[in-house]
UniProtKB/TrEMBL annotation:
Pfam families: Amino_oxidase (PF01593). GO terms for molecular function: oxidoreductase activity. It comes from the Archaea. Keywords: Carotenoid biosynthesis, Oxidoreductase. One of its GO terms (biological process) is carotenoid biosynthetic process. This is Phytoene desaturase. It comes from Halopelagius longus. The keyword Oxidoreductase applies. Pathway: Carotenoid biosynthesis. The gene is crtI. Signal peptide: none annotated. The lineage of its organism: Archaea, Methanobacteriati, Methanobacteriota, Stenosarchaea group, Halobacteria. Residues 23-494 form the Amine oxidase domain.
Length: 502
């Protein structure tokens, strides 16, 4: 991976980081390591942002992210500070990586063994096994080049892409077209196409609106492995927070920010509790639109409401957290339930927003791997159904959708849950808005559409307020825990570059 730019120009400066998601935690660590006096102010009662934890009646849930992918990014992050992930948590590789129940009765396991996966693909389509190997070789090349030259480098202007070195490295990358176009060149069978594209959910997109470049996610999925970190994703949050404390970061929770005033060298960050934090610089890991439209005065905004209305937002979600008696065979740690044709579901997210009638969804059963997340003799389970951001979210609608989801799980996986539920809680569109100040209740941020990737995402450095910066999923490189960790590095480098020039 690329080495981090020299951040020493930030030494002895004071910084307030607003928001304790992965982007904010990462930025805080880089700045503190550079010698800055860093205070991170978090709205909620715990750090982690959308990676919050729900603990009740002996059950523990990761409320948001639950897949540990791209282990190289975590190794790289901790390595910047002469640590390793194992200094803070251990990893267990999952086998299968995940299980898929197709709603016509088919069941597929994606496993760590490539040859076994090739046999699975071959069983659906003659020649698809070797096509899978070819696809993954392309995906691996895209991953290696894309990460080094495009993800770990913040190219903020079109001229950055006209550089000969960039052009040389971009040669052969899948920079044109959609994921649907790319996958169709390899596989005809719709189920194989779905398997190669399910990771788009993590990017907040659909097959027809996500750039083909993101086929690199298949290298992540098939070749790099899927892991479970000790303590879940919440354990990773704890590890990075512990690292931050070692580096000198001060953390303040239960401190929702109400206002950001001032400029470089003279910022005031006020909370709803009337506390004031003074700093030379401010970094916001809060929702980008919320920061601009709610925390800044009108004359200090880069974008107006029309801009934010014109954006395509990643889905929100309907989440059902369940503590149940007994086991939940035949579910795996990660399970996907997919209709043979999922286009209707994507249309209800991006084209005609509505609650899906035949949903594609994800089930997570961490108690398959971790005995500490449920009382003895019980299972911890949550269901996540992607739904359109901004949907009307009422108690009546939630109850109707709960019934639909429970019936669908029983019908398509054989797991009956209703009579065994001892703990239950839902979380959906309005909760994302209330807990995370999330625009339209998006669960992820700005979708990775063709027009919202790379330099087309909002910048790390405010164009309207000197000394104000942004990090997290609205910025580059984008959505997902690993991307937000990298976003923290890019934000710190942007700050150091600016300060160094001055």
């Amino acid at each position: 991976m690329n080495s981090v730019s020299d951040l020493r120009s930030l030494a002895d400066s004071s910084v307030v980081v607003v928001g304790g998601g992965f982007g904010g935690l990462s930025t805080a660590c880089y700045l503190a390591d550079a010698g800055a006096d860093v205070t991170l102010v978090e709205k909620n009662e715990q750090l982690g942002g959308r990676a919050s934890r729900l603990e009740r009646d002996g059950f523990r849930f990761d409320m948001g992210p639950s897949w540990y992918l791209m282990p190289d990014v975590f190794e790289d992050f901790f390595g910047r500070f002469d640590r390793t992930p194992s200094d803070y948590y251990e990893l267990t590789q999952l086998d299968p990586h995940y299980r898929i129940f197709f709603k016509d009765g088919d069941r597929v396991d994606v496993v760590p063994d490539l040859e076994a996966n090739k046999e699975t693909f071959e069983s659906y389509e003659p020649g698809a096994g070797e096509k899978l190997a070819e696809y993954l070789r392309k995906s691996e090349r895209n991953y290696e080049i894309g990460m080094e030259h495009f993800v770990y480098e913040d190219r903020t202007a079109l001229s950055d892409y006209l550089d000969l070195n960039v052009a040389k490295n971009a040669w052969g990358l899948s920079l044109v077209g959609s994921m649907q176009d790319h996958v169709e060149r390899y596989f005809d069978h719709p189920k194989l196409q779905q398997i190669m594209q399910y990771t788009l959910v993590f990017l907040g997109g659909a097959p027809n609106n996500t750039p083909a470049l993101y086929n690199l996610m298949s290298h992540v999925d098939f070749n790099m492995g899927v892991y479970y970190p000790e303590g879940g994703i919440g354990g990773v949050v704890d590890g990075i927070a512990e690292l931050g404390e070692e580096l000198g970061v001060t953390f303040r929770t239960n401190a929702p920010v109400s206002e950001i005033r001032g400029r470089e060298g003279a910022f005031v960050v006020r909370t709803e509790g009337s506390e004031e934090f003074y700093a030379d610089y401010v970094v916001s890991d809060a929702d980008y639109r919320h920061t601009e439209m709610e925390l800044l005065p009108p004359e200090k905004r880069q974008y107006d409401e029309a801009y934010w209305e014109s954006r395509t937002y990643a889905p929100s979600a309907f989440l059902l957290y369940l503590g149940v008696e007994g086991d939940v065979e035949p579910l795996a740690h990660h399970t996907l339930v997919l209709p043979p044709d999922w286009n209707d579901h994507f249309e209800t997210i991006f084209e005609e927003p509505s609650w899906p009638e035949d949903p594609a969804y994800y089930l997570c059963v961490p108690s398959k791997t971790d005995d500490d997340v449920a009382p003895e003799g019980h299972s911890t389970l949550f269901a996540l159904v992607p739904v359109a951001a901004g949907l009307e979210d009422t108690p009546e609608r939630r109850e109707q959708f709960r019934e639909l989801v429970l019936s669908d799980i029983e019908e398509n996986t054989g797991v009956e849950l209703r009579d065994r539920i001892v703990f239950e809680e839902t979380f959906s569109v309005d909760d994302f808005t209330e807990r995370y100040n999330s625009t339209k209740g998006t669960a992820l941020g700005l979708a990775h559409t063709l027009r919202q990737t790379s330099l087309f995402r909002p910048p790390h450095r405010s164009k309207a307020v000197e000394g104000l910066y942004f990090t997290g999923s609205f910025t580059t490189p984008g959505i997902g825990v690993p991307m937000c960790l990298i976003s923290g590095q890019l934000t710190a480098e942007s700050m150091a570059e600016r300060v160094g020039r001055e």
